[in-house]
C-alpha cells in the first residue's frame, strides 16, 4: 500500500472554509460554482453540518449567500496573504455580523459564552455565525490560500506546511507542470 493511500486528503479545516471553497476554478478566477443550483449548495452545506432551510432558497437569499461568500473570501484571502483587507469588504462583514448577533441565541455555561442561531435563523445567518467562529478560532493564524487556485484552508502541518488545497486537486497538477517545465528547459 502506498503512503498516499494511508493518509487521507486534508480538508479545509473549518465548515466556513468549505463554503468559501464552493468554486471550481483552475486558477484564480472564482467564476464557476461547484454546484449546479441552490438546492445542491444546500446539500453541500448540510454535509458540512449546516442546518438546511425549511423552504428552498429564494433568488434573493441565494444572491445574498453568494455575496457573503465572495466578500468573506476577499477578506480571508487578504489575511492569508498577510495584507490588509479592503475597507468595503470589512464593513460589509461587520454589518452582517451586527445584524445576525442582534437575534442570535446566547447561552452561558461552565465553558463560557456560546453563540448560536435562533430558531428563526436561515442558512445565511448560520453562515455568518460560522464565519465569526472561524475568525475567532485559535487556528485562524494558520489560514492559507492554495498557490494554484483560490481554495482556502487551515494548515495543520508541521514544517513548511501545505502549499495546495489538496494534492489530488492542485498539488499533482503543479508538480506535473513543474516537471514539464524542467524537461523543456533541459532540452
Structure description:
- The chain has 187 residues and is mainly alpha-helical.
- It has helices spanning 3-6, 15-20, 38-47, 59-80, 87-103, 123-136, 167-186; strands at 105-109, 112-116, 143-145, 152-154.
- A two-stranded antiparallel ribbon has the order 1-2. A two-stranded antiparallel ribbon has the order 3-4.
- The relative contact order is 0.15.
Helicity level: 40-55%
- How would a crystallographer describe the biggest sheet? 2 strands, antiparallel
Number of strands: 4
What would the principal axes of the Cα set say about the shape?
A: globular
- Helix count equals 7
Distance between the termini: 35 Å
Rg (C-alpha, Å): 19 Å
**If strands are numbered along the chain, what order do they take across the biggest sheet?**
1-2
* Unreliable runs: 1-9
The mean pLDDT is: 86
- Structural class of the secondary elements? mainly alpha
Question: Strand percentage, roughly?
Answer: 5-15%
Return the string of H and E elements: HHHHHEEHEEH
Amino acid at each position: 500500500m502506498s503512503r498516499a493511500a494511508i493518509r487521507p486528503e486534508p480538508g479545509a479545516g473549518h465548515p466556513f472554509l468549505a463554503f468559501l471553497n464552493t468554486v471550481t476554478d483552475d486558477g484564480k478566477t472564482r467564476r464557476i460554482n461547484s454546484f449546479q443550483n441552490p438546492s445542491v449548495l444546500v446539500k453541500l452545506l448540510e454535509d458540512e453540518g449546516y442546518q438546511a432551510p425549511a423552504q428552498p432558497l429564494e433568488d434573493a437569499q441565494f444572491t445574498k449567500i453568494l455575496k457573503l461568500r465572495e466578500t468573506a473570501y476577499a477578506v480571508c484571502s487578504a489575511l492569508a496573504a498577510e495584507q490588509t483587507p479592503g475597507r468595503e469588504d470589512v464593513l460589509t462583514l461587520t454589518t452582517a455580523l451586527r445584524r445576525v448577533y442582534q437575534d442570535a441565541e446566547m447561552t452561558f455555561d461552565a465553558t463560557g459564552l456560546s453563540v448560536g442561531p435562533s430558531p428563526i435563523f436561515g442558512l445565511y445567518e448560520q453562515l455568518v455565525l460560522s464565519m465569526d467562529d472561524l475568525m475567532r478560532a485559535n487556528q485562524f493564524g494558520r489560514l492559507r490560500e492554495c498557490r494554484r487556485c483560490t481554495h482556502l484552508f487551515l494548515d495543520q502541518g508541521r514544517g513548511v506546511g501545505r502549499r495546495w488545497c489538496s494534492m489530488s486537486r492542485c498539488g499533482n497538477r503543479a508538480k506535473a507542470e513543474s516537471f514539464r517545465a524542467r524537461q523543456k528547459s533541459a532540452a
